[in-house]
Amino acid sequence: YKCEKNDVPITVQNGSTLPLVERPNDEEAALYDPFEHRKLAHPTSDLDTLIHLLKGSLGSGILAMPLAFKNAGLFFGLFATFFIGAVCTYCVHILVKCAHALCRRTQTPSLGFADVAEAAFLVGPEPVQKYARLA
Length: 135
Description:
mainly alpha; 7 helices
């Protein structure tokens, strides 16, 4: 390159072309099964998992249900309870699907909740990759 005013050569330095995250191609990610590589000392049964989900969803907030029904009314209270329960179940389902997809994409056997957030930022669009450590 040369300067437009006086034809003096200009040295141009480009940034690094190294990727921030190694992304396997789609074929490699599709072949990786995180369940085959996962080794758990004490895996939970389906019943244990259901109990943990109920305990996490209801928690101590169940103690406030009578007051909520008193303020909302019986019919709206029942409708709202089932609606919010369905929304919470759907959100947990999306989180599990995202965790499984990220396990395949990053070829990691298992990811916790914070690990899912960090991996989602790392393999996401470039503008959000810098926030991965905050996730």
